[in-house]
Structures are given as structure tokens and as C-alpha cells.
Amino acid sequence: MSILQNAIDSIAIGLEDYESTDGRRIVSSTRNIFAGILLLFKHKLCELSPKGTDEALIKQRVLPTIDSTGAVNWIGKGTKTVDVFNIEERFKSLNIIVDWPRLKKINQYRNDIEHYYSNMNNESVQQLISDSFIIIRDFISNELGQDPKELMGESYWKILVEVNEVYAKEKEESDETLEQLDYFSIEILDAIKSYRCGECGSGLIEAVSSTGNASESEFKCRSCEHTLHYENFIGLVINDFYETAMYLSHTDGDDTPVIDCPTCGEDTYIFHDNICASCGDSATHECQRCGCNIPPEEITDSDVCGYCAHMYEKLMAE
Ligand SMILES: [Zn+2]
Ligand SMILES: [Zn+2]
Ligand SMILES: [Zn+2]
Question: What pTM was estimated for this model as a whole?
């Protein structure tokens, strides 16, 4: 069977798993759909592999050999095929376009559902299917030059389109409930909108109350109904939202995006936003003695920079 047929079958089985009433099939649904997408990608790499190279582009190991004319050819070796990382590297180099952040979100969800989530139901995987729909549709039409509806078959295509529409509508409704509350800053609202339930992974988080301060409200997951008060929830949200930026601050030396709040002590002080997502307090960012911008690691509840604080202490000790 061709890789392309395998890809379509795998996605189709994943959608059947999703539609099944047997809860145990939720995990296999995410697994099959993700595997199907990777097979679509591998099909493209196979198509592009030059003849006689033993499908070099889908093999992890590619070695140079010399043929009878003295020419060097790169030939695929062994049975190990490319993984997600290899595919991304090769696609980028071949100018094949995939929405990688979206694909990584699908992969992350697939991994989390196998290891962390306890409350999941069919609705929780709607976001994964909705994200998958976008990747599958764009890849089949833009990179394979085919009609996705024809390739997937009418009935499976219909499931993809419908889940995507239902999810988009529900997401819009949940976001509307969030927008009715008042936040310390607009960025905090954005962070909550992009948060996924810690119990089931659904992105459908809604506000329980319809007016007032967000910091006094409860938030509920629309799929599994897990509910948390702002104070128990905002730390998780901020942690998630700035995860990549925090990582880059360690590896690339960028400014730390989130620091411990000098007022309440929670690690939810958004430095560039100049606000703590937990208590709403703002610290002084400009030193009142020398006028410099105080860097994140020197933010305290005083209004001077680290150097000036040190000089002041020295002066007092004399
Ligand atoms: Zn949930
Ligand atoms: Zn605080
Ligand atoms: Zn200073």
C-alpha cells in the first residue's frame, strides 16, 4: 500500500475513534490522526526523492556513494525514517510550508493526553481535530496539489469540517464570556484565552460570572467542567503563556518575562507589562535616584535600582 493511502487511512481511523462512544478510543484517535499527518508529510518527501536513491528524503541516514560513472549520489540507508524534527528541517530547506507551531500544539496535546489528562472526553479533542483539519487541508491543497475533500473522501471530510466549525463556534462563545470581565491588563486576558484545561486539555475556558473583576471570578472548562478560582488558576495560565519566552531567556539571554512579584511573592509579575497577574500591583521600573531602567532581576518593592540600593546601604554603614 502506498504511503499516501496509509496516511488517509490513519486519519480516517482516527476520526472513527473520535466518533466512537467508547472513551478508551480517545487516545487512539489523537494517535492515529497525528500519525496520518506525519505520513502525509513523508509521502511528499518520497515524491521528491530522486529515483534510485532508495527514497533518500524519508531516511534518517543518507550516505554518499559513487556510481560507475564516478558521480556521487546520496542514497538512503537503513530502515529508520525521519521523525518530526527531521521533517521540519528538510521541509524548511525544501521550501515546503507547514504551520509548525500548530503542528507542535497537536503533538504536545497527543503526548499530554497519553500521560497527564485524566478527565478527557470526546469534546476535549475537538481542538486537536480542528488544528489537524487546518494542517491537512492546507497541506493537501498547497503542497500535494490535490482536492482535500476528494482525497479524504466525502464522509471523513465532513467530520473534519464539522468538528472545526463546532470548535470555532464554541471557542468564540467561551472567549466572549472571558471578555465580559475586567482584567489587570489585556495581556492577562490573552493568556487566559490561550490556556488549555489542566485536566482534559480543552481550550474552551469560560468565566463563571458575567461581570466584575476577573481576579474575583471563577473559571470553568467547558468540556470537563473543572472549575478554578482566579487565584488558583492564574499562576498556571502565566506559566503556560510565557513558557517559550522563559526558555529563551535562559538559553538566549533575553530578558526574563515573568519574575516573582515584590508585593505578593507569586511568580506572576509580567515584567514588560509592568503588572502582577495575581495581585495587580505595579513596581517601579525607573530608578528614582539615577534614572536608569531597572532590569527584571533588580525589581523590588523599593524604587531604586540594585546599584543605588547597594550605594545607599554602604553609605548607611559608614
Ligand atoms: Zn477540562
Ligand atoms: Zn503580586
Ligand atoms: Zn539607580
Answer: 0.80
